[in-house]
Amino acid sequence: MTNAISTLETLTDTAVDSALGYETAAEKAKNPGLKQTLHAQAAKRRETVRMLNDEIVRLGGDRRENGSTLGAAHRAFTSLSDAFQDSNKAATERVEEGEDYIAKKFREALEHADLTPESRSVVERAHAEISAGERLADRLEKQFD
């Protein structure tokens, strides 16, 4: 069970990082439609975080709300580099990079993690939302490239 909690904690931290990334990208975007889309996606990702946290608590762990140290460092670095780019393009590029990363983490967890059937079901539902976000990010990057 500890292995399942550890996997869920890692995925949850990554999902928190992703939600924060969407919120940061929405702040940087100038296009009103893009801003709205990014805020909506951040809300969906927060719902995924809630779902993952509920499973962690069910297994006896503690809720995760702060994301990872690596995610915070990445946001700081990209804020610096984004200052020199078109805001809409930079926002969509960062979102697309983040979605590729999080999708890979969830795929790996589903392929290799020792999860209970209930936990696997939660991760599969979360992965479905992550996959939809990855497709959206690809479309946005093409639109604003």
TrEMBL record:
Pfam families xref list: DUF2383
Limits of the DUF2383 domain = 4-111
Q: Which residues form a coiled coil?
A: none
Q: What is this protein called?
A: DUF2383 domain-containing protein
Source organism: marine sediment metagenome
Upper lineage: unclassified sequences, metagenomes, ecological metagenomes
